[in-house]
Design brief:
There is one protein chain. Helix content is 37%, strand content 16%. The protein is globular, with a radius of gyration of 33 Å. Strand 15, helix 21 and strand 16 form a beta-alpha-beta unit. The protein has 1051 residues and is an alpha/beta fold. An 8-stranded parallel barrel has the order 13-14-15-16-17-18-19-20. A 7-stranded mixed β-sheet has the order 21-25-22-28-29-30-31. It has a 4-stranded antiparallel β-sheet with strand order 6-3-10-9.
Length: 1051
């Protein structure tokens, strides 16, 4: 692609025309009609016009892009800067492709006309005039009538679809909507469906009609009424339509769809520009009016989308920036393996899994003699609406889901995943829904497993795993719910025979997946994996994408850069409710902070929690204000700059209009989460769903959690008031989310550094020992079961936010050492403990009891003990191809899969030893010696701890190695002379580090050294046994602490 030779100044105006080199280097001017056809695609109208008219790219470069678009290359559309979904990109390409043959003939009007008549097929124009006698299906009884709109499409050709505007409160709507049916061919029938628009809910079905090809093709058109089928009991509704076949030579018909100023191939630049503006404005107005709710709440009091300007800075038009944008959708491969799906493909797979699951479950129930007891999918049942419980409708929904999946996803994995979805649905239905069919269940499981294994050569294992659980949870949720509502009084019921009471693994194999007891837990997992398959890279590294700080008012751009440098991955910005008088920036003081976030490369979350939404008037005002802010953000910042919006504080049932406004205004679920506050506990004492969360989950596909797909529920953590000791408060911070965070589908936590009033003075006195920092570190660890992470409020009276942003704290830097500090007593000893391969130091924060002592059957901290938990660097592993980065203390050159010691890179080992020695030196300086300085490590780090400890220039108080081996290169010749106690712990059933086959032999030099070496092998212990590792650490510390000779009354 030829790059722009120059960038014209903003004052220069270029005529919206360009030169295209076609086959044989023939030169022809792109016709105005060609430009118009690509402009007709929604948001592309404004963007393409600005690129041309404002002169931000030159004509030749844009012409080449248009030619690529015409060839159907979606990448070309993205390089135009258009924020289009793939199906919109395909639509744009299809509209231009039909006219490209005319480009080289533009200089000969007669030849153009002749070619158009011969080569271009007739177009089909459809007018949806009106409907009569519709059913009143308003989802809130007594608040009005149906709000109908009508859709027209060719069966099997989703790109042909268009729809009318919505008419509010009317059972006899008049639309008069005319449009061309894209992709029409001779013989195609037309399907018409009428729907009732519901705010914040899925639309209600009002009826359908079909016009066969023979009814309009032979007569060159049709005008009349069609009876609406499935319009409701006793409802006699009809739809009036007009269909016309338009030949390309019919200038009169062409003028109905193309502005007059576009019909002449040679017009002035000013005329063409004016026509483009008119066309863009028309489509913008139509898009803004598409939903009645948006028109009512937002349009009158928000900046028009047509008035909003895109950021057309030079940075955005740089090739590197364009390729980065493309990479977020397409280039997510690692080692040639795809890491995540595009947003449209992820959405299509989500609904494929859902509809296949419900169709299979209902089909299985219909094949037996146990009907559903609940015929109407009313609120709180979790079942679909009554109409959608009908098997033919579920079948049609499943078919449409398959079509959408085939359309929106591309690659070798499309067919295997479609088969896997059907197999998972069939398996769970055969196992759970009566009549149960064990043979079919076994065969379906084998098909499911085989289809997913086909994906291993092209998809990353993490993506395959997320897809596996997505399909699995959707299928079990539907099957369990249908089974729950089946009758149980049939005398002819045939129970499944065979292995009904056998263990699942005995029947289906050791790879069989876990099944939850509660179908709502399967639903929560389904929602979570729906996000993960599209945003998998957000969960790399820390495991949660949001490690956020909440900015108080008054923070500046410098604070944003400090927060990013400190290690926060997202910044939460308060946005005051704007005044919609039209004279002020709706983002207010948040704009410079948001711009600073973009410059620092850290995403933002907009915090609207302080907005008041107590009554209907305030809620309506909040919707208008939210619409204006969302429009401004979508227009002024790139997707991903704002990853979430914390909505005004309203109850969960009342949040739907706010979410609808957020999405309609341009902040889509694929890039921006809607954060909703959850006031009551989501689970009872037994871990069962309760309160508003239970209500929301039981709405099923009618509810907001499923229909939107990216509602993040936020809990606010407060310290327990019955804790009376600062040390106990630290321990309690890790247990606050137990049994709660796990039940939430998508979740995050908001917390602060507040402490009970009775402990405030005592905790303040511990500031010198970094009590507030450790409290923050532990509160973060207490959020480990959330899906999205946490937000911290650090603006206390002790200056914690300044200390944190000023880097006086190690936390929250993910690469910094995690530290358990001695509080309220002198520092007398330090243990430096190294984590295993692929783990991190922060993983041990929640395992604090590893480093406690047993007193009368309880675990208590050692007074005066400091524990340092370093984190290994991210580095490539040569044995794995050298591309995938993981946390490792050194690089492996070979991978013998646990059968013998692997070769390692000596330089990376040397660097790891240097780092450990530096940490030991720092602690020895604080302690005034090395007698009470201990070094330990587990798994891979067991080898490092031994190597670093035995090569350290000082005499350590002891070295601990758990579930690992000793390196062949570790020197032991002077160990006996140094007198360092070495303690080795391993498990007899450890298959990663098998003791009997080779690990035991690596310690032979230690046995023969004559040094203080003790080796213990516990029976029945496997690798990564947390209970055993904690027991071994406590055993080691008890012995080492006893060597210090410190009595209890001394501290």
């Amino acid at each position: 692609m030829a790059a722009a030779a120059s960038t014209p100044g903003l004052g220069e105006r270029h005529a919206p025309s360009c030169i295209l080199r076609g086959p044989g280097d023939a030169v022809g001017a792109v016709s105005r009609r060609d430009l118009l056809r690509i402009l007709r695609v929604g948001t592309a109208a404004r963007r393409c016009h600005e690129l041309l008219a404002e002169g931000h790219v030159n004509d030749e470069a844009l012409a080449v892009l248009l030619q690529s678009v015409g060839a159907g290359e979606p990448d070309a559309v993205r390089r135009l800067g258009l924020r289009l979904e793939p199906k919109e990109a395909s639509d744009a390409a299809a509209r231009v492709q039909a006219d490209l043959v005319l480009l080289s003939l533009e200089d000969d009007p007669d030849l153009v006309e002749q070619t158009a008549v011969q080569a271009v097929p007739p177009r089909l124009m459809v007018t949806i005039v009106k409907a009569r006698g519709l059913r009143d299906a308003d989802w809130i009884p007594g608040t009005g009538k149906s709000d109908p709109y009508c859709c027209c499409e060719i069966p099997g050709k989703p790109l042909s679809k268009f729809q009318t505007l919505t008419v509010d409160d009317c059972l006899d709507p008049v639309w008069d909507r005319t449009d061309e049916v894209c992709g029409w061919e001779e013989g195609d029938p037309l399907d018409f469906t009428v729907w009732d628009q519901n705010i914040g809910h899925r639309p209600s079905f009002l009826g359908r009609a079909r016009l066969e090809s023979r009814q309009y093709f032979e007569t060159e058109g049709f005008e009349g009424d069609l009876k609406l089928q499935e319009a409701g009991w006793g409802i006699k509704a009809s739809l009036r339509i007009i269909v016309k076949l338009v030949r390309e030579g019919d200038e009169r018909e062409r003028s109905a769809s193309i502005p007059v100023s576009m019909l002449t191939s040679r017009r002035s630049s000013a005329d063409v520009e004016e026509a483009l503006l008119e066309e863009a404005a028309a489509h913008e107005a139509e898009a803004a009016y598409e939903e009645g709710f948006w028109e009512e709440i937002a349009e009158a009091n928000s900046p028009s989308r047509g008035e909003a300007s895109f950021d057309l800075s030079e940075t955005e038009l740089q090739p590197e920036s364009v390729e980065t944008l493309v990479a977020t959708q397409e280039e997510t491969a690692e080692n040639g393996l795809l890491r995540e799906l595009s947003a449209p493909a992820a959405e299509a797979l989500r609904w494929l899994a859902w509809h296949e699951a419900w169709y299979a479950a209902l089909a299985c129930a219909a094949s037996g003699n146990r009907p559903l007891l609940v015929e109407n999918g009313a609120a709180d049942t979790g079942l679909p609406m009554a109409e959608r419980l009908k098997l033919p409708i579920r079948k049609r929904l499943a078919e449409k889901a398959r079509e959408a999946w085939s359309r929106d996803a591309s690659g070798f994995f499309v067919q295997p995943l479609a088969q896997a979805a059907a197999a998972a649905a069939q398996h769970t239905a055969s196992r759970c829904v009566v009549p149960k069919q064990p043979t079919e269940a076994l065969q379906a499981w084998r098909t499911f497993d085989a289809c997913l294994k086909e994906l291993e050569h092209g998809l990353h294992e993490d993506l395959i795993d997320a897809m596996r659980w997505l399909l699995w949870n959707a299928s079990w949720h539907a099957a369990m719910l249908v089974s729950q509502y089946q009758s149980e009084d049939s005398e002819d019921e045939e129970d499944a025979e065979g292995h009904e009471d056998e263990d699942d693994e005995a029947v289906f194999g050791e790879d069989y997946l876990d099944v939850e007891e509660d179908h709502l837990k399967h639903l929560a997992n389904f929602i979570w994996h729906s996000v993960q398959i599209h945003r998998s890279e957000d969960w790399d590294g820390s495991g949660r994408p949001w490690r956020g700080v909440i900015f108080p008012r008054g923070m500046g751009e410098r604070d944003v850069h400090q927060a990013a440098s400190a290690g926060f991955s997202v910044i939460r910005l308060p946005v005051p409710m704007p005044s919609l008088d039209g004279g002020k920036d709706v983002l207010g003081p948040a704009r410079p902070l948001l711009e600073a976030c973009v410059a620092a490369g850290v995403p933002a979350v907009l915090d609207l929690l302080d907005w008041s939404c107590r009554g209907h008037t305030e809620q309506e005002a909040a919707c208008k204000a939210l619409a204006s802010i969302a429009v401004e953000v979508a227009a002024s910042f790139r997707p991903g700059a704002v990853v979430g919006v914390a909505l005004p504080h309203v109850s969960l049932p009342s949040v739907a209009p706010l979410v609808a406004v957020l999405r309609e205004a341009g902040l889509s679920a694929s890039t921006c989460a809607a954060i909703v506050q959850l006031d009551d506990s989501p689970a009872d004492e037994e871990g069962e769903y309760s309160g508003m969360l239970q209500w929301a989950m039981r709405q099923g596909e009618q509810g907001l959690l499923i229909s939107d797909g990216h509602i993040v529920l936020e809990l606010c953590r407060q310290p327990a008031e019955d804790v009376h000791d600062p040390r106990a408060l630290l321990d309690e911070a890790l247990r606050e989310g137990e049994g709660i965070d796990e039940v939430l589908p998508l979740s995050c936590v908001r917390w602060n550094l507040d402490v009970p009033v009775g402990l405030a003075k005592e905790c303040e006195l511990l500031k010198a020992s970094f009590w507030q920092e450790e409290f923050s570190m532990r509160r973060e660890a207490g959020c480990e079961h959330t899906t999205h992470g946490w937000f911290a409020t650090l603006d206390d009276d002790l200056g914690s936010i300044s200390a944190c942003l000023g880097r006086h704290w190690r936390w929250p830097d993910p690469m910094a050492d995690c530290v358990f500090w001695p509080h309220g007593c002198p520092h007398v000893a330090t243990l430096v403990y190294l984590h295993g391969f692929t783990s991190s130091g922060s993983d041990y924060v929640s395992s604090y009891e590893y480093f406690y002592r047993e007193v009368d059957g309880a675990l208590e901290p050692y007074q005066g003990l400091k524990v340092v938990l370093p984190t290994a660097p991210l580095q490539s592993i040569t044995a794995w191809g050298g591309e995938e980065r993981t946390r490792s203390w050194y690089d492996y050159l070979t991978d013998h899969e646990g059968n013998q010691e692997d070769d390692l890179d000596p330089e990376t080992l040397k660097e790891a030893v240097r780092r450990v020695h530096t940490t030991l030196d720092a602690e020895a300086s604080l302690l005034g010696g090395t007698e009470a300085l201990w070094l330990g490590g587990t798994s891979q780090a067991a080898a490092l701890a031994l190597h670093a400890g035995l090569t350290y220039h000082g005499q350590l108080g002891g070295v601990l190695a758990t579930q690992g081996h000793m390196l062949a290169s570790t020197p032991v010749s002077d160990l006996a002379q140094k007198g360092i106690p070495v303690r080795i712990f391993n498990g007899s059933d450890d298959e990663t580090m098998p003791w009997d086959t080779w690990v035991s032999h690596t310690f032979e030099p230690l046995r023969k050294s004559g040094a203080d070496v003790k080796i213990r092998v516990d029976e029945g212990v496997e690798h990564c046994d947390d209970e055993a590792e904690g027991r071994w650490c406590r055993t080691f510390l008890a012995e080492m602490w006893g060597r210090l000779g410190i009595l209890d009354d001394e501290y």
